Amino acid sequence: MTTPYEIRQGTSPVILGFPHTGTSVPAEIADRLNDNGRILADTDWHIHHLYDGLLDDVTVVRATFHRYVIDANRDPAGVSLYPGQNTTGLIPETDFDGKAIWKDGQGPDQADIAARLRDFHAPYHAALAAEIERVRAIHGVAILYDCHSIRSHIPFLFEGKLPDFNIGTDMGKTCDSAIEQATLTVVEAAEGYDRALNGRFKGGWTTRHYGKPETGVHAIQMELAQSTHLQTEAPPFAYDAAKADRLRVHLKDILVRLEQIAPGLKR
């Protein structure tokens, strides 16, 4: 079995989390996916490459498994992130368009959930938690920047077009206001892009679980519309280097500013 996570340790106070870029699906699980599920459409395509090299000595924790195996950014208890709104669960039954991803009768049961929590979800979060503790021990503070992307048009989940930059801090609860403001300042000045703060995406379970500013751990989620860095938001989901290079300038600015802010956040 593929190791459920990859780590690159650094000395920066900033940690990058990648819960949704993995495409590994064990054969016994892949066999249960239908043709639609096997497309793996709801991947955060190329996001770990988009951020690569933007901040020296940044720590990276990346899940290698696909979210259809189990979603590393969902509450392990199965509690919805957005009660009353369409979303996908701990092990999704459908894709982001509401279409089935499992063969008839092959969807996950409670035994599957328990096994995948043990084998994938828990190891990823143990690794992430350990890195947060290591970084906090060095600096007295840690900033988790959780990296995401999603198609810009998904009627099942939201109306109209998603903004290019979607910042989530659970209404300011998961990080110091200086982190939120620094990020917002960059995206507001980014010419040709639009943005939202705590709009449709307010931060997933990772951001909400770890982001406890009173303990010195701050968390912020960035959900990018895939139109900002892909050639097309459909198979083969190819990376657009020209779009990405333009976007990376602003992402680098955000990360550098967060690193500079960190010393002032010590409790």
TrEMBL record:
Entry's Pfam families? FGase
The record ties this protein, via Gene3D superfamilies, to: Zn-dependent exopeptidases
Q: Which InterPro entries match?
A: HutG_amidohyd, N-FG_amidohydro
**Source organism, top-level taxon:** Bacteria
Protein name (record): N-formylglutamate deformylase
- Give the organism the record lists: Rhizobium anhuiense
Gene transcribed to yield this protein: hutG
